[in-house]
Amino acid sequence: MKVSPAKRHRVAVAFGAAFKAVRQQRGKSHEDLADDAGLDRTTFSLWERALRTPTLITLFEVADALRVEPTQLVADTVQRIREAP
């Protein structure tokens, strides 16, 4: 099944916003989270600007570093997609 570029972008935008909200709620800077998750700090900026999305493994690693369930990030993303105009 091929996903359209427009749909990919909607998902990336929604995920970026959901991720940023959780990161800020947890009081984590990009640098702090990079240290905790073992990733480059620029990764998170790319997500928040909808230029990239995480792999499933990376999603689990970052959720663990944020001390949230991966399902919370996914559910928040789905909710943002449904609420988008």
Short description:
This protein has 85 residues and is mostly helical.
What is the secondary structure topology, with strand pairs?
Elements: H1 5-25, H2 30-37, H3 42-48, H4 56-66, H5 70-83
Helix pairs in contact: 1-3, 1-5
Structure characterization notes:
With 85 residues, the chain is mainly α. The protein has one domain (5-83): lambda repressor-like DNA-binding domains (434 Repressor (Amino-terminal Domain)). The protein has 5 helices and no strands. The chain has helices at 5-25, 30-37, 42-48, 56-66, 70-83. It is globular. The two termini are 25 Å apart.
Largest sheet: none
Strand content: under 5%
In whole angstroms, the N-to-C terminal distance is 25 Å
Q: Helix-strand pattern, N to C?
A: HHHHH
Rg over alpha carbons = 12 Å
Q: What is the CATH H-level superfamily?
A: lambda repressor-like DNA-binding domains
What is the average per-residue confidence, as pLDDT, rounded to a whole number? Answer: 96
CATH T-level topology: 434 Repressor (Amino-terminal Domain)
Question: Structural class of the secondary structure composition?
Answer: mainly alpha
Rough shape?
globular
CATH architecture: Orthogonal Bundle
* Whole-number count of domains: 1
Number of strands: 0
Low-confidence stretches: none
**What is the highest CATH level, the class?**
Mainly Alpha
